[in-house]
Please model this.
Amino acid sequence: MHAEQGQKIKKILVANRGEIAVRVIRACRDLGIGSVAVYSDADRAALHVRYADEAIHIGPPPPRESYLLAEKIIAAAKKTGADAIHPGYGFLSERSFFAQMCADEGIIFIGPPPKAIDLMGDKQTARETVKKNGVKVVPGTEPGESDENLLRIAPSFGFPVLIKATAGGGGKGMRAVYREEDLAEALASARREAESAFGNGDVYIEKLLVGARHIEFQILADQHGNTIHLGERECSIQRRHQKLVEESPSVVMDVDLRDKMGKMAVAAAESCGYVNAGTIECLVDKDLNYYFLEMNTRLQVEHPVTELVTGVDLVKEHIRIARGR
Model:
């Protein structure tokens, strides 16, 4: 389980590479905590390897033979005496089995509990979970519908609609459909791409909010039932569903809207028993109606935007929360 209140973390293994590994090691230094870098053959001379107090080799260049091998990461932590693992982002950061493996080995996983990762890792399960806590979601279909039912239900939302992979991210398995006659082909195509990208071809359909803004709230939740937000980042400028520009504060936001959306974001995080840093992604339409979209159960690439605006070091908070603070 997570650390007891105030439990000391003496050494953190950073299960990542590159920029985020350097970022976590820097926080470790500031907090007086030892750091262990892991590296593949390709990263022998990388900055994160030189910057850490210790470094341990974990395999050949392909990530599936090194950074994605949970057993190797756990073995490296045990060998170096690391009592905690920070997963960074990408790689194993949103794999509930890895968080569970850490718990089983008595290693503190600096991130959310496995159950929260599971509930929020599947977009459709996440929608159902937050709805039970009174959080408004974009109108869409229920889990596990057949293509036949999806073809029948989708027109009731009014076109355009958006087909989305339940296990998706980065625009994979996603199709915007503007005419009913294009729906069947788009469904088949989205399922194929989702199966190829995530090994899971499940999709659902939701109303496409044309011209909506994409706004995300940074969440911090401790182990004592306290959840706060640190304001918003706007990431509406995208190409192929990939964010290009992240800014804070959002130009659409006023004090009242920020308060309401912030409360919704906190309620969404609390609905799954969330602990540690996470991001609640929302859509805001032209009439300033707002909806829960999904949750990222990890530190995001964009976290420094919030750090610059708030002056809060999110990686240090990540570690403090894991210690039970």
